Amino acid sequence: MSEGECLPDVDLDEVADADDNCPDDPNPEQLDWDADGIGDACSPQDGTPEHPFIIQADEALTSHYVFTDQQDTNQAISDAFDSYPPNTVDESGPEYIYVFTLAGSSRVTAEILSPEPGGVDIDVQLLAALDPLELIARSDRGVYAELDPGSYFLSLDSYAGGGTPATGRYVLDVTVRPIEPPAEETFNDYVLAAVDYLYNNYGQLGYASAVLTHDIPYGSYGVVNASDPPRTMCVAAALEVILTAMQLYEQDSGDSTVWDYLPEISFERLGAGDLRGHVWVNYDFNAGGTADALRHFGMGMTVPFEQLRPGSFINLNRTNGTGHAVVFLAFIDIDGNESLVWHDGLVGFKYFSSQGGYDAGAGGLDYRYAVFDQFGEPSMPGKRDLHIIYSQDQKYLNTGMLYYPSLWLPTARVLGIKTRSRAGAGEMSVFDPVYFDGVTFDDER
Q1: Residue in 129, 157, 412, 148 with CA at minimum distance from that of residue 286
Q2: Is the pLDDT of residue 426 over 90?
Q3: Which segments within 140-210 are labelled E, that is strand?
Q4: Residue among 97, 99, 96 nearest 33 (CA)
Q5: Which fold does the domain 44-180 belong to in CATH?
Q6: Where are the domains of the chain?
Q7: What's the count of helices (H) and strands (E) in the chain, helices before strands?
Q8: 313: three-class secondary structure by DSSP
Q9: How many CA atoms lie within 13 A of 11 on its CB side?
Q10: Can you give the pTM of this predicted structure?
Q11: What is the largest CA-CA distance in the chain?
Q12: With left for phi above 0 and alpha for psi between -120 and 50, is residue 328 left, alpha or beta?
């Protein structure tokens, strides 16, 4: 071959056919998770342990990616695993196997859309190995783990504890995010700017079972209307902070595409396919608060409480059976001194939300000092919210952050992929005025 003549490259991926592990399928990165010489792009994939479905990241987003898939275990070829020791739950129905490879330390969630169709019960198992099985985590709805670089497996298996395998259709979302995203990859600074703006312009105007302190334009698409301004409730305060952060971002950057990611109605309606429906808390949707909602819609990620940064979101629960949706501002010690990072000796956190009484000055958008129940009722520099339940279970202390808009990655809910759920069964959220009663410890009864 003469100098300068190009080598054959049938798939035009800039890897010569002689060196290409998939010469007929474009794969410039030559990914080959099992190192068998056959690239992932052309490896057989049928969801069996021998040929698992391969979850691949977008080339441009190696540390942030979302994978969505839907299957029906009635069609699964594999029925290799009946349980996942040391867990003993009966998973003797058919399963689909997936594999993914992490280049760096990552937060990973894998979850199925809930509620599932009637009679279907698909469980999620995260595995470090298939032979022998090495279980990392499992759940009937989804798993979360912080993982080191390497290859891992998911098994979407049909529960059979009732004697008959509960096979059927599922929709899977797998989200991968870095353990420590740079500050510029998170939206926390805009969330904090939104808190300042809302407190200065709409603070302490009263608490009520209402939505938003004022009408908020949704780009060029319309307006998200306030229901009884200027009073608002806590879950609506979380939604208002997000909308205001988006406004401030557009003003600062000139980027109006921030409004294109979700339709306006997603901030107005309470359905299973709407962000607001998940922010409002609905366990049928597997949504325990704002952090879950942001993850479900590809906008954020659940993060353990101790790893939060100012401008993150928390849904807390109290020992008296009530709860609250708030914006996290700082960790606090027994005297109310603030810290931006968690360390020994801290007892809770400072937050922003809507709470308190109906009248202006007695409630509305304001700050509180939240103390975990085991630390009693210490004095604080401002009004207190006491007897908060500390838990590593995100159902009881739902914590997480919002990512920068360029890293909002569509999930099944954004793409409109939905399960055929039972008609009328848990498909709408409602505001629970007993659970979200707006009263914190130092508010007048």
Answers
A1: 412
A2: no
A3: 142-147, 150-158, 169-178
A4: 99
A5: Jelly Rolls (2.60.120)
A6: 44-180, 185-415
A7: 5, 19
A8: strand
A9: 18
A10: 0.92
A11: 89
A12: beta
Angle at 90 between CA 95 and CA 110, to 5 degrees: 50
Flag whether pLDDT at 310 surpasses 60.
Answer: yes
Q: Hey, what are 311's tokens?
A: 């401008």
Half-sphere exposure of 49 (CA within 13 A, CB side): 13
**Phi, psi at residue 394, to the nearest 5°?**
-65, -15
Beta strands 223-224 and 216-217, pairing class: antiparallel
Q: What is the structure's pLDDT at 417?
A: 81
Mean of pLDDT values over 434-442: 95
**Lowest-confidence pick of 116-120, 243-247, 383-387:** 116-120
Q: What pLDDT shows up at residue 21?
A: 76
Q: What CA–CA distance (Å, rounded) separates 294 from 301?
A: 7
Contact 23, 11 (CB under 8 A): yes
Task: State the first-to-last Cα distance of the chain, in angstroms, to the nearest integer.
Answer: 88
Q: What is the pLDDT of residues 222-253, one digit of tens each?
A: 999 999 999 999 999 999 999 999 999 999 99
- Return the closest-CA partner of residue 420 out of 164, 156, 67, 72: 72
pLDDT at residue 192 tops 50: yes
DSSP 128: E
> 3-state SS of 4-57?
CCCCCCCCCCCCCHHHCCCCCCCCCCCCCCCCCCCCHHHCCCCCCCCCCEEECC
Q: What's the CA gap between 291 and 432, in Å, rounded?
A: 18
* CB-CB contact of 410 with 299 (8 Å): no
**What does the DSSP 8-state code read for residue 164?**
S
